[in-house]
Design a protein that fits this description.
The protein is of the alpha/beta class. It contains ten helices and 20 strands. The strands form four sheets. Strands 1, 2, 10, 11, 12, 13, 14 and 20 form an eight-stranded mixed sheet that branches. The protein has a seven-stranded mixed sheet with strand order 8-7-16-17-18-15-19. Strands 5-9-6 form a three-stranded antiparallel sheet, with no helix packed on it. The two termini are 32 Å apart.
Length: 363
Amino acid sequence: MSDECSGADVIVIGAGLSGLVATTLLLEQGRSVVLLEAAIRPGGRIQSLRDAETGDVLGDLGPTWVWPPFQPVVVHWLQRLGLHTFPQFETGKAALDHGPAASVQFQPLPGQHGIARIAGGPVALIDGLAARLPEGVLRTGLAVTAVCVDETGVRVEAPGSTFSATRVVVAAPLRVAESSINWSPALPDPLRQAMQATPTWMSVHAKALIVYPTAFWRETGLSGRIASQAGPLVEAHDVSAENTIPAALFGFVGWPHDMRVAHKDRLDAEIIAQLVRCFGEAAASPTQIHVEDWAANRFICTPGDLAEPMSHPDVGPDILRQAHAGGRIVFAAAETSDVSPGLIEGALAAGMRAARLVLGSRV
C-alpha cells in the first residue's frame, strides 16, 4: 500500500548529522518537515556498537574525534545538547608494529593538540537531535529513488511511498545522491560533475572496535596506540569510556575492501594476533570484536569511491553550497561544507547552511 504525504514545507533526505541539524532548525522556524532515512536507524556514518542487553555505547564505529579549540560549531551544538568532551587518552608509549617476524618497538608518539572525544560518543549528538523531533517527522527504511521538481513543488519517491513538499534538502552523500536518485529534470552537468568528483569521507574505511573488561595496556605504561605498516590494523587508539568502563581499542583496517571481503573469516583472528603482539596475552580475550566495513554500505559507498585512492575531501566548489532549481533543491552532506568537509564539524555546519538557504530562499 502506498504511503503518500503531501503538504510539508520541506523534505530532508538523509538522517545523518547534517540532515538532523537542518531538520531541527527548520522545525524551530515553524516549517513542517519530513525526514527520510534509507537505513533502519538515523546517524549515517555516525554509529556505535551497543551492549545487546543494556543498550550502552561500547564504542564508535564511525567518526571518533572532535577538536573543540578549533571547531566552534561543534562547541555550539555540544552546548545546545548538554554534552561534554574529554581528552583523547594518549599517555604512555605507543607500539610500532613491524609484523610477526619483527620485534615491536615502544616509544612515545606526538599527540594532536585539542583532540577530544564526546562523552557517550558522537552518537550522543544523533540521539540528542533525534529525541527532539516530533513524532512522525523521521521515517526510516525509505531509500529515495526519485526527486521530481516542477513549478508546483517537489515530489520525492521511495518504494511504496510518495512525499510532496515545496523544497528538498539532500543530506545524503553526494555520490550516492547523484547515482541512486532519478532526478527530473536532470541535474545540471556542472552540479552533477561536482557531486561525482567529491569523495565521501570514510566510505572505503573499515573500522575495528575491540572491547575489553579493563584498559590493561594503561597499567603497563602504554597509550593503546599502534602504528603499523604490517597490519591488519595500520593505526589504533584507546577509545575507552571517560571512566574506562567499558575499555576499548579501535583501529583502522589497512586491508583494502576486496581483501577484507575475500578473507573476512580470518580478519578477527589476525587483529587479535596483532594486538597480542603489541600488548601481550591480555589482549587475546576481548569481550567483543566488531569490524564495521563502510565500503559494504550502499547508502555510504559507491563504485566511484572504491575506484580511486582514499582521500579526504577538500573544500568543494561553490555550486555544492548553492540552492538549485529556483531554490527548491539544497544539498547538505558533510562534504559540502566550507569548513572541515566530511568531519563532524563539517556536517553540523552544512546542516546549518542548508537550513539558512531554505529559510532565506524565495520560490
